[in-house]
Structures are given as C-alpha cells and as structure tokens.
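Continuing the series of single-chain predictions for the mutant panel. This is the parent chain; the variants come on the following pages.
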Amino acid sequence: MNEHAQLTQLCERLGAPHAQAEAMAAQLLKRADQLAAERDEPREEMLAHLLRLLVQGRSGEVPADFPATQPPGASEKGL
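Parent structure:
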C-alpha cells in the first residue's frame, strides 16, 4: 500500500468520506513537501507534524503554537 492510500485510509478512519479522504491525503502530502522545502526539514518529520495537527484538530484540541484567531467582526461584537 502506498503513502497516499495509507493516508486516505487514515482520514477515512477519522470520519471523512472516501472522496474527501483522498483529497485530504493528497493535500497532506503536498503540504508536507512544501514545509520540508520551506523549513529545510525532513519530509517525514513535516508529514508527522501535519498528522499530529490533523488528529489534534479532529479531537477538538488547539495546538499551543497556533495563533488565536477570531471571525471577522468578532471584536466589534465583544466576542
């Protein structure tokens, strides 16, 4: 089983429909390549980083290194 198929299977186990899981797997692989080039880090480490973010996000956790964001206009409404 190749990398894309493994990631597709993982995304399906996390609840994504097959077509969406395939798209997510492709995006994860592409972004891992981009991050590896940008940060001069091993591709495998960047993919592991993205997978940790994926699992944390699926669990509703916000990683500590993620900047806080608010929806547009939220500060005007006191949110």
